[in-house]
Amino acid sequence: MTIGWHFDNTYSKLPDIFSSKISPIKVKKPDLIILNNNLTKKLELDFSKINNEDLSQLFSGNLLPKDSKTIAQAYAGHQFGHFTMLGDGRATLMGEHVTKDNERFDIQFKGSGITPFSRNGDGRAALGPMLREYIISEAMHALNIPTTRSLAVVKTGEDVVRENILQGAILTRVASSHLRVGTFQYIAARQNENELKTLVNYTVDRHYPNIKQSKNQALDLLKVLMEKQINLVINWMRVGFIHGVMNTDNMTISGETIDYGPCAFMDTYDPQTVFSSIDQLGRYAYFNQPSITKWNLARFAECLIPLIDKDKNKAIQIVTEEINNFEKIYEIKWLNMMRDKLGLFGEDPKDQVLILDLLTWMHQNKTDYTNTFCYLMNEKIQNNKIFYNENFIIWKKRWEERLKLNNNTPEKYLKLMKSVNPLVIPRNHKVEEALKFANNNDLNLVKKLIKILEKPYENQNGINEYQSTAPASDQKYQTFCGT
Ligand code: AMP
Ligand code: MG
To answer: Looking at ligand 1, which residue's alpha carbon is closest to its atom 3?
Structure first.
């Protein structure tokens, strides 16, 4: 076969405790239903000469490429605040594929059967959630937000039993690695400094070679992760993305968004928005995401304490100071992100008030987050009567005054706005509609949705229904954990 795999499996060479050598459990009747041609090109792979049957065998894990080394990775995590030993309970790392430019990608099956870490689970995944991860992760990529990606979805031909009986599926996920805060927690809990050093060295070699020579590598690793994760959560806030399960096992060390379970995009602007049915207390609500990021980083910092300083108290003091910089860094970056959304160049002392006043108005008037910025960019949107509101008109005058301080042309600030404000997002009602058809073996709407979401910043004809808010009956939208 001339696919072009180039495997170099480094994780499986780490000491045994880091992973478990396993094989994906074979499935009855695999059927490839979607393959990501754009990602295929990026990975320098060519599946064009392979028939659908063989591709189905490949992307179900029934037939593995020659140099793959299949493992399940060990990790732990704080789930809704409680520490648990976890690990890949339904995922198999097929291998690390390296491109000509030396870019390394984990190729992983999700839903590939039980592993030593499955606990009470069946190791399987259902079609709807795997397609959902495909749609939303690819949308995030197109929105220029770091994320794991989706290469393929295969139906297994087997049922999975949840509340109902559902069709089984396997997603092939591509990530720059699957190292998580939870990986560090797992190793740190073993209290073996050599193992911890091994993990830090591995991480630095793989993701952050620029800190290889640093005097305090562990501290620098904390600093870079903090920067990466702040940038990530600001991107989420920018587009109204709500992850839904920001457990420490779902926070990558690469800074990519991972684990698309009950995530969803906010429609009506409300900082308290929660979609996940299991998040009753709103721990992972939209406005809580930055403080949870900080909380997760503090858990990461705790793991590194033995390597930060021999004197434990001193180490704690050092990491505490570092973590406490979070708010300061976040606020500056958040303000700049919001300035971009409003086309504001430079800084004005009144910017923060101007921005907060808009958000307050949006909250009070229940306007659509995405479409409000579209309106400000003079994009045609439906239901725009709300913007005749007197308070909005007053606010808009203040904004226009501030734009004058830009000292540039409308073309210039509109260009900035258009680079950060999407015209289309994966709206919950459109995602659900597409998945409903997919469950009845019709993938046309899934494919159409994916295509539209590939160009979120471009004007596309005939996509009105993808830009409009949910029908009133949909207002209590709920998502269910990645089942
Ligand atoms: P998640 O909520 O997807 O981040 O998963 C949390 C943990 O539960 C991870 O260790 C998963 O591997 C595991 N898990 C989720 N679903 C299943 C399943 N159906 N079978 C086995 N393990 C699972
Ligand atoms: Mg997870």
So the answer is: 482
